[in-house]
Amino acid sequence: MDHIEQTFQVNYSFPVHFTEHLFRAGNELFGDFLLARRGDTVKKLLFLVDSEVALHHPLLDGQIREYVSGIEGYALAGILQLPGGEGCKNDRRYFYEIVDAVNELGIDRHSYVVAIGGGALLDLAGYASAVSHRGIRHIRIPTTVLSQNDSGVGVKNGINYAGKKNFLGTFAPPAAVFNDAFFLTTLSDRDWRSGIAEAVKVALIKDAAFFGWLEANAPLLAQRDPDAMEYLVQRCAALHLAHIAGGDPFEMGSSRPLDFGHWSAHKLEQLTGFELKHGEAVAMGIALDSCYSFVSGRLPEEALQRILGLLLQVGFEITHPGLVVDNAESPLLLGLQEFREHLGGTLTIMLLRAIGSGEEVHHLDVALLQEASHYLFHYQPIHSPQ
Amino acid sequence: MDHIEQTFQVNYSFPVHFTEHLFRAGNELFGDFLLARRGDTVKKLLFLVDSEVALHHPLLDGQIREYVSGIEGYALAGILQLPGGEGCKNDRRYFYEIVDAVNELGIDRHSYVVAIGGGALLDLAGYASAVSHRGIRHIRIPTTVLSQNDSGVGVKNGINYAGKKNFLGTFAPPAAVFNDAFFLTTLSDRDWRSGIAEAVKVALIKDAAFFGWLEANAPLLAQRDPDAMEYLVQRCAALHLAHIAGGDPFEMGSSRPLDFGHWSAHKLEQLTGFELKHGEAVAMGIALDSCYSFVSGRLPEEALQRILGLLLQVGFEITHPGLVVDNAESPLLLGLQEFREHLGGTLTIMLLRAIGSGEEVHHLDVALLQEASHYLFHYQPIHSPQ
Ligand SMILES: NC(=O)c1ccc[n+]([C@@H]2O[C@H](COP(=O)([O-])OP(=O)(O)OC[C@H]3O[C@@H](n4cnc5c(N)ncnc54)[C@H](O)[C@@H]3O)[C@@H](O)[C@H]2O)c1
Ligand SMILES: NC(=O)c1ccc[n+]([C@@H]2O[C@H](COP(=O)([O-])OP(=O)(O)OC[C@H]3O[C@@H](n4cnc5c(N)ncnc54)[C@H](O)[C@@H]3O)[C@@H](O)[C@H]2O)c1
Ligand SMILES: [Zn+2]
Ligand SMILES: [Zn+2]
């Protein structure tokens, strides 16, 4: 024997629930999930809560305590508040705060960490859970549009390090996700809107009918209609989940269709010192790459105009000084190189051939990018659609 | 729709090679592995080397530089030395040293971290690689008996935190393992012997024929015969790999057959302030749990005597003051509770019914443990076997 080929599979499975008032008496979803998994020793629950969520939902803490006390076979180990937003991913202290709590409260691999918050808090909590005891089960309760329809249903986590987004992190599927629509009512308008960009993105690369639905419902979405948002979150989450399950869940290759519009978005977030929110930057990135798809002869102009029209109608800005490409030295172009490094291996960028259908390329042409940027900055909506 | 069940599989596969003088000109194994995986951009290699290995193999650094310069499509990003032994897992500084190197040298998800060293250095390097960029490919080149036949071919990594072994870590299969027998020639006698305990363990729970081979070759193993050790490493690694592939690779359940003898071993390591090496403690743990298997009526006395005889003949101590159980307050007993916490969920302990065949139980009886400890401390080898 000179070599052994080791081969095995690991199966992952988790439910994503859609509900309202998860911890209100009478909502059995969360309790039923846990009861079905109880063992012969009491399992612990450690809650990690986004401070902004706690602020806007002052009854939550009491509701959780009451609710958990009714679940047989489980005990509340603690409720820890952590600052929401990017700050919690920027300072390692919060990572160690969670790890220390896991240690001191005796949370083991059969206990659960339950994280309630925006994408940032979930990314931090997911990472700390994934590396404590080589992986504690974690339940995600996303509270923003972006985290309910995109980041919170996925398999990635991470914190920032040395000024780089998500430099430390893992792929670690959650034990379950509970999307509670009620949380969305307290979001700022910017955070409400921001998450819609991911729905536009996934519709553009996967689902023309969903794009049509978004166009038809843009006014309702802009007015914060809860029913429209409920459908958007469910459809976007479903498309996201199907993509992960059908593809390369742990991203071993260089292809990332779901990163459509993201190469420039990541760079814009950084160029603006994270003044722009992720979804706001993604909306601009979608606009730019759609223009590129048009000027490079892939996408019909009429489709492009529908895309830009939808983004504007939802309330997004589609231009930004950082988005200008006027020569080969434009700062935005560094984003291409950084995106390649982030993927590792070969640069792979998603473009559009039609609404609902993408095409991957391995090179963007600077002259065409200039043209695309020029088109975008001179775009005049012909009429407000609908 | 009220819920989506997300289900997917991830496939893992990696080769484990057995060779000698991996980086000597003419040995194509390592180069061939990489050449088969080259891409259209140059991939980087970051080497992490156990300082003791570097000390005992002063030509290694030059050999690596020479060897890597001949592999097309790859570039040497750096060779970083880190202290070998448990110290590198105890101080977080080394973790950040690797992460910083990954950042500064631009090691991406398609580059490779190549770790050369004992189990401790491999655990550290594997962890830092697993969380940088959400997982950089890592190649393991284990240099101790224990890491070649056990830890280095497995899927776990970790560092110590808050005084707890492997408190932070992940499950992350390597990209490849290269076991180079030449490294074993420079081990201390204690490290040479220590790794043999894992072979005895896996033979006892899985493979009576291998146990017979170990008995027949005990004198050669004790005299550091390289051919006997080569067979031992290959057979033990193969059994270990087959167990992982066939079972629960990422240890989602509470059953850990490969932890036979380990509940008391972990405690002994801790009680002695890690004065005892892992394998030395495992030999004692095997002895104790074999005695328990006998006094609880599972294992025939003749089999027990063969086990104790083999351990002694290889040169292991089988008793230690810390191993005494004379009443319900004996410190060793805390190890049972800690082991349960470590597994999470239900206490699950492997015992023996015969050489080559185990049985899991969920409870150890203190009176029987006292009896087992008493038997062990009064054991007189009847004859030296063979
Ligand atoms: N893991 C992934 O796959 C993935 C994917 C995309 C984005 N992300 C990450 O997600 C993060 C962005 O997430 P986000 O858009 O949810 O923003 P966020 O988590 O930064 O939240 C935005 C703000 O809203 C607050 N907030 C959260 N829920 C609230 C509520 N119900 N009511 C009022 N305020 C509330 C937060 O405290 C924060 O101040 C980024 O760090 C990004 O890197 C991760
Ligand atoms: N990841 C896993 O699944 C797993 C399983 C079992 C043990 N472990 C871990 O492995 C570690 C023990 O590993 P180990 O037994 O290899 O000990 P080790 O890594 O501590 O090495 C022992 C000593 O030998 C030195 N050394 C290494 N190679 C040498 C060589 N070729 N010549 C001379 N000196 C050399 C090291 O620098 C160290 O000082 C522990 O931290 C343990 O927790 C991990
Ligand atoms: Zn995004
Ligand atoms: Zn062991």
TrEMBL record, chains A, B:
This is 3-dehydroquinate synthase. Residues 195-324 form the 3-dehydroquinate synthase C-terminal domain. It comes from the Bacteria. The keyword NAD applies. It holds the Pfam family DHQ_synthase. InterPro entries: Dehydroquinate_synthase (IPR050071), DHQS/DOIS_N (IPR030960), DHQS_C (IPR056179). PANTHER family: 3-DEHYDROQUINATE SYNTHASE, 3-DEHYDROQUINATE SYNTHASE, CHLOROPLASTIC. Its cofactor is NAD(+). Signal peptide: none annotated. Residues 80-193 form the 3-dehydroquinate synthase N-terminal domain. Keywords: Amino-acid biosynthesis, Aromatic amino acid biosynthesis, Lyase, NAD.
